[in-house]
Structures are given as C-alpha cells and as structure tokens.
Structures
1.
Amino acid sequence: MRGLDKKVALITGAAGGIGRALVKRFCEEGAHVIAADISESNLDSMLSELDQFKDSITPLAMDITDHDSVVTKVTAAAEKLSGIDVLVNNAGWDLAKQFVDSTPDFWEKWSIST
C-alpha cells in the first residue's frame, strides 16, 4: 500500500482484528484514519493499542445499519478532515453455520432488533 500519505481513509469495523490491522497499516503509510466501529469500548482499546498513531486516528462510534446516523457522522467527519479519499468496508456480522440451516429471522437480524 503506497500513495496514502496525507490521505483520509474511513475504515468500518475498525476495532476488530482485521480492522485494527488495517488502521495500523494505513497509519504507517501516512494516512489519517476515521476508525468506525459499533463498539466504543473496542475503539478505546484499539486507540490504546495504537497509541503511537493517536494523532492520525479519528474514532467514530456508529452502527453501519443506521443509515441516518451514518450520513450524519460521516458527513461531519468528512467536513472536519476536508473529505474522505479511501473507504474500506470491513464491518460485518455473521454466525458460523451452514447457509441452508439459516432462517429468514437470521437475515432480518437488524430490522427485527430496531
């Protein structure tokens, strides 16, 4: 990954294992990272772990399934940082089971819980 110096990257699912590695790598390349995750406590943990990059990370607690919240929070972050150059859609959820064993309720998980 080259050419990221002074770029702004938005990484969803930033506080998980893959997300943390992405945040770290983008910071190592000189990017400013908007680290978005549903878990504020996991974001805090990630920031502690990546303390050497604290000035290059903007934590953003948000649920990517809440469209209005995403629009509001991402717009505010983009305005603060003069835009977003890179988007990494890393967030996701799943349950380790065979697809044929899943139910419609499983696939409607977010609409049922809101």
2.
Amino acid sequence: MSGSVGIVVFPGSNCERDCRRALESLGAHTTYVWHQETSLPDVDIVVLPGGFAHGDYLRTGAIARFSPVMGAVRDHANAGGIVMGICNGFQVLCEAGLLPGALRKNSGLKFICRWVDLRVDNNQSPFAARADAGQRLRIPINHFEGSWYCDPGELQRIRANDQVVLRYTANPNGALDDVAGVTNERGNVFGLMPHPERACEPSSGSQDGAVILGSMLDTAPAREHAHL
C-alpha cells in the first residue's frame, strides 16, 4: 500500500491530527493543506477532516465551500481523484455540490457522541473494498447536524447507482434511508458522518475504521513519495 494524502485544514477543523495519525499508521504519507491555498500539492487523495469549519456559522460547511482550496478539490475530483469528507468534511462536500443531499440537525435536536454499528452496503466502492458486503463495522459518531437527506427523486437515483456505501444498523440521527456514508455518482468522492480515524488502534476499542481508510489508500497508485 502507498499513497500521498492532502488533509485540508479550515479555521475550526479539529480532527486533522487524528486523520494524519491514522493514515500514517496505515502507510500513507500526509501533508496539511491550508484552506487559502489555490492548488493542491502532488497528492493521490484529498481528505476533509471533521471539526467546525468557520465556526459552523450560517450552516455547517456553508462558508468553507467558498474557501479558495475548494476549487482545487473540485478539479481533483473532476479528474477522477479520490476525495473523502469526514463529518464536517462531509457537510462541506455537500455544500460544495460534490456530494448529493445535505446534512440537517439530528432528530431530537441533540448532539450525539457515541459508538454506532454500520452495515457495508456497497463493497465495490473504493472506500469499502476491504469489507465484505453486509459486514458490520463499529465506528464512533460525534455530531449535531448529521442527519443526511435529499429529495425523493434524488434518493431513487442514488439507490439505483449504489451510491450508499454505509448505512446505520440502528439510525441514531434520523438520516434518510439510514445513510451514514454516500458517494457521488462517479464513486470517487465519499462523505461519511462516522469518524473512521478514531477507530484504527487497538486501544480505541475497534479497528474497523482501518477497513474504510485502508480501502481508500489501496486506490492510490504504487509510487514513492517524499514525506511532507
């Protein structure tokens, strides 16, 4: 396995170090990319980590979508490059139109921070290729606006295209169709509310996050990179 990963950092991001630690433990080379950059370094994969970009003012991700770096992220995705958004990163990608649907406040209007069980519904995705279809993964969530939804017509298209990679086995936040993680139509951009980077070490209680992150890294071309 190899791969170079650019981790985008917005004002208010707070999971970039967790992502770096997890990805490097799986063999990746990582570099941080500040949100004001207008281009990306030579990376195979782009990750938008969790946190509270721009303080979640207006709506989660609503300001971050206008950060200069998002033009480069869009170009990377349009060229077929791999992009993952975790929690707040998922929200940013939806606001930027790189993923379908939107994230709304949890049902019950309560912040949720706990472990959840997920079902892998599409292991043909590059983000779940290490899993078996139907495999259960235990990964934590930590969000207030994590209830994914879209209009009925869009949901029909998403189902037909097998864009839902992960579903909750017991829906914690009211997400439509139990969606925990979904891709774009092309399948190279992925957003998920659970935090796989927090479930990669034996001490965390689960290493199931490595299934997702490792699957993503497997897509990177086999080439050597200088550590940045």
